[in-house]
Records
---
Amino acid sequence: MTNRHLYITLLAILGFTVDGTAQSHQAPNVPRLVVSITIDQLRTDYLEAFTPLYSDVGLKRLLSGGRVYVNASYPFAHVDRASAIAALVTGTSPYYHGIVGNQWLNRETLRPVGCVDDKRFAGLLTHEMTSPDGILTSTLGDELKVATGGKALVYAIAPYREAAVLSAGHSADCALWIDNVYGDWCTTTYYTKLLPTWVSSFNKSNAPGRKISGAVWEPLYDVTGTYNYYLNTDNNKPFRHKFTGDYRFDSYKESALVNADVTDMAGHCIVSTGMGTDMVTDLLCLTYYAGTFGHQRVTDCQMELQDTYLRLDRELARLMAFTDSRFGAENVLYVITSTGYSDVEPADYDSFHIPTGTLNMTRTAHLLNMYLGGIWGQDAYVESTYQNQIFLNHKLLETRKISLGEATTRAQELVAMMQGVRNVYTSLQLIASQSPQTEKTRNAFYPQRSGDIIIEAAPGWRVLNEDTQQSQVSVASFMQFPIIFYGAGTPAERMGEAVTIDRIASTIARAIRIRAPNACSSEPLF
């Protein structure tokens, strides 16, 4: 055989081998639509306890057919709705993304500001002025937009402003939430100069404001009023709630009925915008509610909470049935998890001889001023307090040539001796710390939005600010919640390993073959 014939033969063999190898190792299809669902205050114990009430096509379908991580947690302390959702879409903690809570204290004005407040951007069908610029890193939606050159569609829908805007991120096509005054689906001029026509048409007949006067929340089925999971069965009775008064929409958004509005708007958004109709992956972020009605104690609304999970099951079933019929289950990836907290319920610890007490932040500030005044001369060294944080007067310290490190160390020494204080951290200590013992507190901290002194009260103690009447109970107990991946070829499996939610963003990014958000250093779950 001549060299020429040998060369041609080798090329043919190599070509066949490469071709065969490529065919045998084809990557799975990328989902056409990712539906990321955050369920506010979803708890594993309730999720599993109410299983007898569910259909086979909602929560049972997700739990049996999905990849379910049953032991999930947040890698930072003091989780609330805003900090949780920001962590989910950025894949990192408040130490990097900056959303330390629903609100924080503005150091310039010494007034609380909302995490998405922004006077530069007016609202559309709302008086609230809003933007996502409080998020200091990229989000999953942002990276999807970058990777597709802006072709991917990214929408977020939630009952609450901060949930919608933080889920949407900086580059989304739109974020929609329910206005507290008129009950319309609304947005901000940050995303669009005019309200989309499909939103306007939906509002005309389906906005909560059009039906609130006739809305009644009562048990979906009779069984809801008889089945009872709770130890305390005194409140095992039917309920009937209507929504009236100036705060009717606030109340409505803390009821099970609001989840149907989210599903309705999600379906309308998918159809009207053409999401999932091409080969470019789109992202739809939804927020549902699974907390107690009106933030009451569970013992005061047991039947309502059971009905909330039953209705949640129905809405998830309705949403999945819609996407199945439109795209096919293999083309949609569902990712479901919780905000990882629940409203702290007041407990009468005194009556049961359980250690408790009140840590008064206003009095703590006065004592600290007296203590520091005895060292450096009387003055207002404490500028303000907010929640469990103390803010020192930086300008005064600079004028008196007192270093922040010395001032915070002195303050820490005094506060640590007070009754009801479990731990005290300084801002400089948290910035420099790499200790596993302080990791969760450090992850919840952001220097420009957090105090100079962070106080951790003893479990069961109440932190009270007399000036603002802010009050919160210190609770360190673990709340179990799941992470569920369903659809798009994800195999069904129940995983018992402990995982943190900062790995969700990198997992989705890998599934749709884009870069993870720019502050997400956590590896994918699978």
---
Amino acid sequence: MRVKSLEISGFKSFARKSIFEFDTPISAIVGPNGSGKSNVAEALRFVLGEQSLKSMRGKRTEDLIWNGSKSVERQNRAKVTITFDNRDHTFPIDYNEVAIAREIHRDASSEYFLNDSSVRLKDIIELLSSVNIGASGHHIISQGEADRILNSSPRDRREMIEDALGLKIYHWKIAESERKLIKTEENVRQSESLRREIAPHIKFLKKQVEKIEQARSFRDELASLYNEYLKREEIYLSYTRTTLHKEKNELEAELKTAEEGLARAESMRGVNHQDSKESAELLRVRGELGNMRREHTELGRKQGRLEGMIEYEERRLSAPVESENKMIPVEESKNLAENLYEELGKAERSEDLSYIRGVISAVRARVGQFLSSIRGDAGVAERNDNAKRELEKLRDEHSALSKAQGELENSMNKLDARAKELERVLESKRAETTDAERISFELRSKKQELTLRLSMVHDRNEYFAREEVAFKEEIREGGILIGRLIQDYPNFALDEGSALAEPRSEQEARRKKIERLKIRLEDIMGGDAGSDVVKEYEETVARDEFLAKELEDLKSSAESLRKLMQELNETLDGQFKEGILKINKQFSEFFTLMFGGGSASLQVFYEKKKKRSDTDLNLEEGIPTEEEEEAEEGIEVAISLPHKKIRGLQMLSGGERALTSIALLFAMSQVNPPPFLVLDETDAALDEANSKKYGDMVQNLSKYSQLIVITHNRETMSRAGVIYGITMSADAISKLLSIKFEEATQIAK
């Protein structure tokens, strides 16, 4: 691969298009001072991607564009194109000719082109680095910079040598890996932070899901109990409805027959006979007896309700006290309000004063519990005392009801005995009356009995109506708790005969069990199915698992990057040390050639530098800062001149420094030869004898790299195959002339 041509248009003093053809190993560019020779070297830096305006003797982008003269107006853009012969495919692209162009405008915008296609600066740098070419690398040595490698610090000198050895690519890869590692570590911290944030939420949701699962278990059990209970209740109500209707019709028919017979008997007696005092009393006693029986049944229902409330208060009193000063969730407040609303609604529909008082007492207890949970530790003892007082009150009411029930049973036994006694009295009187009177009395008694039985049937109908309402209410409440499962009870398999033969106490026991289970279910979830909570829990757990996997991948990636950086550093260190050995060999040879003896070498050393710690505090606060040492690797140049006791660079003369820097630069170029080398008046400080040595070295270097030499030295010019002369006329524009020695020799012959 070689440089074929360089085209400059509008760049600095080259206002018009100028084309340099580089067909020989050594091309020389000559001309008087100020004609624009060094602008050619800067054009090469420019097109190869140089970003420092200072290295191209400018302060602003506009300084690189032809700014006009008296006769030629200024340009609005500058463009430089360099063309390489790529027939050997040194560049890793499938083109025999590679043209790289850079164009800038006065608005500071910049464009890059590769074979007339727009590309990025990064693409140009990567392409050039593949063949050891850079914008400001060791292969472009401008005027006054030949001595720069000797004047540089050991650290900067190391960077120049790394550049010459083609090791910059490793620094770029290491820097890129460091940026990726920083980004990866930041992503690791973010992922860990996200996992820490959602961990308490997952824990909370898990507890809620456990409650929901428990509630579902209770709900399934409740559904199973409801199926049997409601099926039995439906059979009982259906049978009772039919029985009461049939009994009412039969009694009404018998009453009608008795009234007709009584009318005939009274007609035969010719006198209306009023009921005796005993008969009226018997009717009254039987009426009271019927009322007491209904009251006895109602007391039994009240006792059942109180037993459920006592069980609930005992379970609540034994429950552990929750943590101090806890926050009351909105859901808990909502559940409390809904439960109180439902219980007060039931009390509002009831006509039973004792039941209403019981509900009010339970509501007051639950509100007290809620207030205790808000008050925290100060309200725990008060809540327990209130709960104990409420439990004692419920037990007292239950005991009072039991006592009242016993007294009512005693009264019923007395009334029953009184009724039997009145019946015996009336029977005795009937025997003493005449047949008409006996018939009339019997019919009248039968009428009273039938009327009483009809009244009892009516009362039973009213009670039955309440049972039907309670059945429908039970279905409604069950539907709230278990949903559509409540509708499955008609399909429950149950023999009707065995269901009717079962005592009602068994069904009442089932109802109490259902009530207790309902209280437990409402206490846990309040009837909420919790599907949204379960869904949120599953989504949150899935996100946590995703973050865990992502975190694992990120940590693996970070470890891979650290391993890659370590490998790159090891490769860089190994190739650098190997390159130093090669440079030292060439450096010694060139140095000996230039000075006729002596020795020169590059030596690697480590310099300890102090740096401020990451934990440094503000010095303005008067607090001393901590410092830590780090080792920094650098390069020192060791020389020994023949016949002189000079061993330090600072003791060299200007010419000796020039020869030393040239020997070192040529040695660096020999170790890792770039495709081309630009020398901008590096021979300016040499005398005639050293110029010949310099020319021999240039001649030798041309075997490895294409040389573009900017010079005033005739010895150097004599080694060139083509000379480009640059002149500048009155319009301040650089103009190009060229001479090829081979063509000139043939013409001369």
